[in-house]
Each structure stands twice: as structure tokens, then as C-alpha cells.
Amino acid sequence: MIVVDWGTSSLRGYRLDADGGIRDQRRSDQGIAACQGRFAETLAALIDGWDGDVVLCGMIGSRNGWIELPYAPCPADAAALAAAMQPLQDPALPGRTLWFVPGVASDADAVPDVMRGEETQLIGLLALLAREPPTAEAHHVCLPGTHSKWVTLQDGRIASVATMMTGELYALLRTHSLLARLMDADDGAFDAAAFDAGVQRSGDPGGLLHHLFGVRSLGLFERLSGAAAPSYLSGLLIGHELRARALPPVVHLVGGSGLLARYAHALAALGSGVRTHPEDLAARGLYRLAQQHGGLTG
Amino acid sequence: MIVVDWGTSSLRGYRLDADGGIRDQRRSDQGIAACQGRFAETLAALIDGWDGDVVLCGMIGSRNGWIELPYAPCPADAAALAAAMQPLQDPALPGRTLWFVPGVASDADAVPDVMRGEETQLIGLLALLAREPPTAEAHHVCLPGTHSKWVTLQDGRIASVATMMTGELYALLRTHSLLARLMDADDGAFDAAAFDAGVQRSGDPGGLLHHLFGVRSLGLFERLSGAAAPSYLSGLLIGHELRARALPPVVHLVGGSGLLARYAHALAALGSGVRTHPEDLAARGLYRLAQQHGGLTG
User: Which positions, given as ranges, span the membrane (chains A, B) (predicted)?
Assistant: First the structure.
């Protein structure tokens, strides 16, 4: 079986064996933003030599992707997502069926929230957690990234989703703002002390819009160097993200980036424990969805 | 007497009569970012035909300006700022002395804060307020802008300064973010209902980093149009700015931009009264500083 996680900026394919183990994997930078609508050719190249049907998740199933799937509502479990998968056949991929997994929408809040792609990692995490003694407590999951996702898992289902624009705001401020001029052009080494100072500062009164200006004024008074300022800014933003939430005793962190260590560090500083999980939960989740769906070949 | 408010992006000159009344005024877009170090020529052109010494405030007295003045510490009154003014003579402006007004720094908070230029508007406001029955209460002043300044005036002095990066963040998100793609290219008409909804939303749990993503998800579900989204975003940011502060019963709003009406509207929604003051308080403040300093000709 072949499973594919196809996001805005990256494309990952996994060839799985009958038990869901990863037999082979391929990565490319041909995210949907890069491949300019040449979806069939891009996929055919990625999975060349691999046989069978394909299960796909991520932004490939969005308005800017190959086909647009409506979001599945919360609470959503593997059975619900598998039932909502949509098939497609394409002449460039003869003899195969492509199955697209829907994203998930949450209306736990006054304003709706959504994800596309992360839901398969969460289905994978639910499969892992199902091996542990059952609990009536919810699991709280954070998937750091350009847009970090906070997800509540309860009773084997994805119960709610909340998105924080922390990573994108960091990139905007780092690149285009007045603060950018005070920072060294290269990120350089991560400065743990400056990061901690930012996390600490995020707990002061005044709010994020005020604390951001501190990057400038600390620089003016030579209390923050251009090399340390990016780490301080990162701590400030992640600190605000975390403090805006009612932090549970344990947070499950999912992802592969260096961001994970920063979140783990900040969560520890704020008194939460952490369990980390690798990004290839996506392959595990897609495998589970394919099993639930049945009828795939490969 | 000639007074000049010279900021990063604008230049304003006023010719005052002996009582401080504005006899004549000239504006230009030759802020310090535009005039590329040609300060003497730019000023000579602006004040051509006007006689006398010149008092200057704003970023012209900063590291990127003509000369760099250290910040005067809070609490600061007209006498302290006048005493800290620094003179300069330039061959391109024969027979005149130029007097530069320092900015003001505040260490009321754990992180220092600063302003350059706004302090003269506040000296002008203090002169206005001095005509009213004296009060032991502080006056709370907001100067909206790219970086809005919140200032406390007490006992005839500038007691503290806090800067909020609200306007700059709006511009960054409006121009460079993922949210920008969901908004019409032109700002179009101000949408009061969308602005109000943003101010309202800023009071919900989740924090600014989460609320920003709502601009996207409301758009996805067709609950916010591309025309209304900029007003919603503006309400969200201004709402967060205001809620991060302990709002007093009355806020003095100073400025000339359309932003003032938005702040007045949001403050009213949050239960604060408003007194508005025009931007030419700067001329009044510079006049008062010149009087305090004495010895100017013109």
C-alpha cells in the first residue's frame, strides 16, 4: 500500500508492508505550491516502481489542491474519516485508485477552526494511545509548525482543533518588520538564555503587541544583541501561544522539526510535562484509515 | 520662531507668532528615510523665507537622523526636555541655531520603552490640561499609529510610556501573510460591523495568535468576505491592544489619522470615554519648549 502526505510545501510518500511497517519512503519539495497543478505527473514520479492504490492526505485535498474535499466535523474518528475518503482515477496512473482523506473542522469555539493533513498524524497517535490502559481523561496534543495546531483527543476521537499563527508571525516579524533590522541576517545558533527570557517576558502584563516592541527597545539599550534577538522573539511568541491556553499536566508534542525542542523547553518552564512523537505518525494514521476503509489493493 | 516635527516618513514645519499661534505651515514627504542624509538642504528648502532659530523633534534626533540625542528619563516635564535640548549650527543655514529635542525613555516596566517626537505633542497636551482645574489623577493618553504609544501624565509630567506594535502588525498581516490572500487587494470602505466583530472576538479565550487564524477560517466558511476582512483584522488587533491594558474611565486620543475614529469606537465599546486632540499639539509643545529654554531668536 502507498500513502502520501502532500502539503503546501512538502511531499512525502511511504510504501508500507501488509502490517503497516514503512518499507520505503521518498521525499520531495514538490508541495502543492511548487508543482503548479501537475499533480498526476508529480505523483507518478514519486511512486514510480511502487504498486497499488494510494491514500493521500494534506492540502492536496483542498481548494488549491487536486480535488477539494469538505471538512469532516469533530468529533471525528478513524471510521468517520475513512468513510469520507473520496476516490479518483487518473489516466497518468493507470490501474490505481487514489483515495483522498478529508481535513477536519472544529466548532468548539465561537469561530470555526480547521486542519488538513495533521488529522492523519492524530489518527496514528490514537492508534498508539489505544495500546495504553484506557483513560476517561482527554489527551492534549500540540503540532508545532508555521501554524501550530492544538488538538484534544477524547474517547478515541479528535474532539477539537485550535490553530495558532505563531510560526508565521515569527517569519513575518523576522523578515519584514522594523524588528528585522535589529537582528542579524542569519539565525545563527539558538540562544537558550534569550529564548527563556522571551518565554518569561510573555507572562508580564501588557500583551503581545507591547512585548514585541521590547525587542527593539532592549536592542536600543544594548541589552539584547542582534544574534540573540531571534531566539528572544521566538520565546516571546511561543510563550504567548502557551500562556493563552489552559495547559494540561501533559502535552503530546508531534513533529520532526527543531521547533519541537523549543516547545518542550517552554512547556517545561511553564510546568507541563511532555511526551514527544515522531512525524511519521502520518504513515501510521494513513495505514489505519486504509484498513478502516477496506477494499484497497497493493 | 520655527518648529519642525521630523519623523521617519514625514516632515512638518510651522512658523509660529510670538504667542505660539500657527502663522504658516508646510508639509513634505521628506522624512528621514526619504531624504537620505541631506538634512541641511531639506530643512533649508522647507523653511525658505522664514526667519529665526529652529526647534526640531522626532526621529531626526535619533541614530538614523542628523544628530543622536540620548533619551530623557521619565518622569519628564517641559523644563527637563528644554534643558536637554542640543544646539547645532550648519553652514547651509547661516545665522540660525537648530535646537534638537530629546526623546523620552520609560523604565516603568521590566523592559524599557521609548518615544521620539510624540513627547512634544504630550508637552502640548500638558499645556492644554494645565488650564483645567488641577487633579491628582493621572491622565491616560493614546497616540495611535504604526506604533501606538500609551502615555501616563501625572503632576504635569510624562510619567511613563508603553508602545504597542499594532499598526505595524496590521500592515505585515495585510501585505505579507497567508491572510492577505483572503483579503481584497484594496482596503475599500471601512466595514463597521466587521470591525466591531473583531473587537468583540478579541475578548474571547485563545489569545491573539489563535484569533488571527479565524480571519482565514471565517473566510473558508464564507462567514467573512474579502472586502470585510481588513476591518475585522483591524478590530481584532485594536481590541487586543486595548484589552491588554487596564482601561481608565477616560482616554485622551491624540492624532490626525482615520485610526483615531477606530480607536474611539473600540474604546466606547469597551466602556471608556474619549477626549480627542488634534495632531498639531506638536507645534504647541515645541513652542512651550522654546519658551522654557529661552534665548531663541525668531
Answer: none
For chain A, count helices (H), then strands (E): 9, 14
What pLDDT is stored for residue A279 in this prediction?
Answer: 75
Mean pLDDT (whole number) for A18-41: 93
* CB B57 within 8 Å of CB B120: yes
CA distance to A34, A48, B233, per residue, from A263 (Å): 29, 37, 27
User: What local confidence, expressed as pLDDT, does residue A297 receive?
Assistant: 61
Compute the Cα dihedral for B215, B217, B220, B221 and give only its sign: negative
Distance CA A255, CA A146 (A): 12
Kindly list the residues of chain B whose beta carbon comes within 8 Å of any beta carbon in chain A: 109-114, 147, 162-166, 168-169, 172-173, 175-178, 201, 204-214, 217-218, 220-221, 223, 237, 240-241, 243-245
Q: Per residue in B44-81, is it b (16+ CB within 10 Å) or e — as a string?
A: eebbeebebbbbbbbbbbbeebbeebebbebbbbbebb
C-alpha cell at B59: 526621529
Q: Choose among B165, B173, B205: nearest Cβ to A213.
A: B165
pTM over 0.90, yes/no: yes
Is A168:A278 a contact under the CB 8 Å cutoff? Answer: no
Look up the ipTM and state it: 0.95
Provide the grid cell at A265. Answer: 523547553
Q: A277-290: per-residue pLDDT in tens?
A: 987 799 999 999 99
B242-295: pLDDT as tens digits: 999 999 999 999 987 789 999 999 999 999 999 999 877 999 999 999 999 886
Sheet architecture: strand order including B11-16: B22-28, B11-16, B2-6, B54-57, B98-100, B86-88
Closest CB to B176: pick one of A110, A176, A241. Answer: A176
Of B227, B236, B217, B161, residue with least CA distance to B191: B227
Radius of gyration of chain A (CA): 21
